[in-house]
Amino acid sequence: ALMITDECINCDVCEPECPNEAIFLGPEIYEINPDKCTECVGHFPEPQCVQVCPVACIPLNPERVEDKETLYQKYLRLTAAA
Ligand code: SF4
Ligand code: SF4
């Protein structure tokens, strides 16, 4: 999963781009729910939020390092639940 750092300027452009609805406005800045972020695996070749973020504040979440297969399985679970 990816995460949003405190460099976020709350510009709001990433939230609608997320195919998994993983991005939400937290108490201070936008946040990513790691249980829903597939790093866009299953939907797009590149993380969409990273593509649009003007301040490049969306790195990998070091607490949720996942390989492509794990991310794909998460995608399958999320789409089955939808
Ligand atoms: Fe959503 Fe993709 Fe960004 Fe993860 S990488 S938060 S799935 S847009
Ligand atoms: Fe924050 Fe970047 Fe999302 Fe804008 S695009 S709300 S700066 S994380």
From TrEMBL:
**Which cofactors is this protein said to need?**
[4Fe-4S] cluster
Answer yes or no on keyword Metal-binding. Answer: yes
Task: Report the domain of life of the source organism.
Answer: Bacteria
Keyword list (alphabetical) reads: 4Fe-4S, Electron transport, Iron, Iron-sulfur, Metal-binding, Transport
- Output one GO MF annotation: 4 iron, 4 sulfur cluster binding
Q: Which GO terms describe its cellular component?
A: cytoplasm
Q: Which PANTHER family match?
A: PHOTOSYSTEM I IRON-SULFUR CENTER (PTHR24960:SF79), PHOTOSYSTEM I IRON-SULFUR CENTER-RELATED (PTHR24960)
The entry's protein name is YfhL family 4Fe-4S dicluster ferredoxin
User: What is the organism of origin for this protein?
Assistant: Ramlibacter agri
User: Organism classification, top ranks?
Assistant: Bacteria, Pseudomonadati, Pseudomonadota, Betaproteobacteria, Burkholderiales
